[in-house]
Amino acid sequence: MRFMERVASAIRYHKRVYLGEFLLTAVFCLASLALWTIRHANADMRQGFINRLEQLTTDGHAASGPVVQAVKAGYATLDTRYTLTWLVVVAINLLLCLVFGWWSVRHRRAESEAYLILGKSTWSIAAQYVAESLAVFIAAFLLIGLATFLLSDSLNHLLVNQSRNALTAEFSRSVSNTTANQSLRTLFEHKLTEFTGPGLFFPGPPPNEPQPPHQLFGIIPTALVGCGTIIGGQGLAALAELSVIKHRLLHTVSSPNQTHS
Question: What is the pTM of this model?
Answer without folding.
Answer: 0.79
